[in-house]
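During the no-cost extension, the postdoctoral fellow (Dr. R.K.) reprocessed legacy sequence entries with the updated structure-token encoder. One reprocessed record is reproduced below for audit purposes.
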Amino acid sequence: MGSALGLSREKIEALADYAASPLYSAAERIALEYADAMTITGRDVSDELFARLREVYNDDEIIELTAIIAWENSSSKFNRALRVPSQKLWQPE
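Re-encoded structure tokens follow.
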């Protein structure tokens, strides 16, 4: 899926280390950090993280980003509970 949208294989494979990867822009890093904070159990979006997010994105963009992350999290929980298998949209070659 990501490669069909123009993401390189290298960038997709570097996702686990996005914070240190030179392949990701500052805007991408903060969006991914925000997604981690929203997604990982026991984490929260701190005031400091939200302030940094606001330096990069406007209110409409933050709302859209938040909705997408929340949707993906909900979808993931729903599929896992119902044992819906992965669609295997990304398969390393």
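The radius of gyration is 14 Å. The chain has a mean pLDDT of 90. The remaining legacy entries will be reprocessed before the final report is submitted.
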